[in-house]
Amino acid sequence: MSTNFDRRRINGPEESSSPVFVDDDEDETKWRPGKPRQSRQPQDIRPIFLQLGLISQANGSAYIETERTKIACAVYYRYGPRQSKSTGYSERGRLSVQVKFAPFSCHKRRAPIRDAEDRSIAVLIHQSLVPSIRLELFPKSTIDVFLTIIENDGIDSCVATGTVAASTALADAGIEMLGLVMSCAATLMGEEIWLDPNHEEATAGASTLVLACMPALNVVTNVWQNGTMSTKEGRECMTACQERCATMHSIVAQSLVSNFTPE
Amino acid sequence: MGEGTRPSSPWEGCVTGIEVVSSSYHQTPPFPLSKYEKTYIQAALRELSPIRADGRSLFDYRSTALETGVASLANGSARVNIGKTAGEESGSGAEVIAAVKLEVEDVLEGEGVDGGRIVFTVSCSPAAYPHLSSTALDDLSYDTTIILNQCLSHPSLHPKNLTISPRRKSWSLNLDIMVLSDSGNVYDALFLAARSALWDAKVPKTRSVQYQPKSNILGDQDVEMSADGSGSIFNTREVAKAADFELADWWDEGEPLRVNREWPVCVTLNLVPAKSLLMYFADVTPHEEASMPLRLLLLFSFSPSGTRLRSMRLMGDGEVQLESMTLLLEGGENHAKKLFEALGKKLEEEDLRRNQKAQVKFDLR
Fold it and tell me: Do A223 and B325 touch (CB under 8 A)?
C-alpha cells in the first residue's frame, strides 16, 4: 500500500477523483421526468447526419450522428470476403459484427477492454442485419463490420443508430443486400410513446423497444423490448417505429444515390 | 392423432404427474442437419393438420418436472427438466438448475448499489454441448447470460427487500443457472428455473447495530441505531463509526423476495418459414430447432394489476411481417398465461411438500 510512499517528500493523496457536484435543483432548463419533451415532439426523431466513405482504407464506411450519439462503422472484405479458416464449411457466408466503445464515449471512462456490453450490442446489430444480406453469394467467407461508438447517449439509441450505420456502410461497400435495414427506438413515457429517446428519457420511461426492419420489403428483422408494457402498447410502439423507419429509409436511400452520381 | 385423449391445458401433465409422450425419439443434438431433413420437418409442419416427429400437436409442451430446494447451500434453488420421459427408453430432456446466493456488498466502498442488485449468470456445461469447443461454449454461455440479463434486469422487476442498511450495505443476489442438458427449448427452461429459484429464495432478516465506544456519560453498550446509522444523540462531537448489521435470530431462513407475482414466464414461439401464412409452434426438439432457427422470446407477467409484457426478443436468422407480430403477441400471451398458472400451482405444491408435509412426516416418527 505504501510502496510508493516517499518519506522525504510531502506526498499528495494516493487516490484522487474529480469532485462531485450536487445537482442544481434550480436549473429549470434541464429536463426532468414528468415534464413534456424538450425541443421536439414525441413522435419526432433527432436529426440524422449520415456521411459515407469517411474511412478510406475500408471497403465501405459510414459515419452517423444524431444529436449526442456518434458512431463510425467500417466494413471490410478486402480481396473479396475473407476466408474463414477456423470455422467449418458453411454454405452461406458469415457476418461478424464487432462493437467497441471509445473510452471517452460515456460519462465514466470505459477501459479499452472488450466487455459484456460490447458483445450484447454486437449480437443485436447482427440479428438485425443478417436477414438482409445475401450471404448465400459468399460461401466459406466472412464479412466484417466494425462499429466504433464515439459518443454514447443510451444503449437503445446506440443499437438503433448502429444498425442504420452498418446497413449504409454495407451498401457503400457494394455488398449485395435484399434491402436497407432501418432501426428506431421508442420508449413508453406514461401514456405516450416517445420515439428515439436519449439516455435520460430511456431510463425514465417504463419500457423501451427497438425495432429493426426493411421498409423496402415491409418485414421486421429484429425486435428487442424490455421494461413493462401491455401488449397493446407493444403493438403501438412497433407500428410507430415502423412508420418512422419508412421515412428514414427514403432519406438514407436518397443520400446513397446522390453519393454515387456517375462521373 | 387422439386429440380427445390429451389434457385440455398443455401444462396439466406437469402438475398431476408425468405423462409419457412417445419416447422412442431420442433427443440428441443432431449437428449438422442435412437440407433434406430440414425440408422434411418443415413440410410436415405445413400440412393441413401439422405433424411433428414425436406426435405432439403444435402447442403441446413435453412433460416438465420441477423441484425446488435442490441446493441446500444456496438461499433458494430449483431444477427444471423439460421432456424427461419415464420408462426405459427415456430421453433426458432439457435440464437446468438455478440457484440463488446472496452476498453482502458495501455501497460506499464496494460495488454495491443502494437497494441491492441482481446478477444473472448462465453457464452451459460441456456435457450439454459435446460438439462445441471450449471457446464456442464460452461464447454460448456469454450470449445466454446477456439475453437473461437484458430481459430480466429492468428496475421494475427489482425486489424491494434487498437493502440491509440504506446507503451502506445491501444484498447482491447472484442467480446462477447451469444448463446440464439441452434438448431444445432451453430458454423456457432457463426462465422457469429462474422464477422458481427466486420464488424459493429467502432473504435473511438483519438488524442494524452500532458499537458505541466508552464515553463519559455511559459505559460500553451496544446501542441499536436508527436504520441509516446516523450519530447517536449522546455523542454530538465524535463521528459515529461505520454502522454494521447482524443477522436476527429467527426460526426460518428469512423472508421471501417481494417480486413473486411480478416475475415473468417465458414462452418461445418458433416460426416456420412460410411465404404468406404465419405458422408458429412451441416447445421444440433439437431437430426442429436446427431446421427452424427463427424464434420469438416473449416474457409476460400476470399479476392482479394486469398482464404486462416484460421483454420481447427476436432471435435467429429470418424476418417477420409486422402484422404477424401482433398475432404472435396475442398467441404468446395465451400460452404464457397457462404456463404461469400451472407453474404457480406447482410452486405452491412444492412449498407444501417441503414445509407442511415434511412436518407431518417428522411428527409421525
Answer: yes
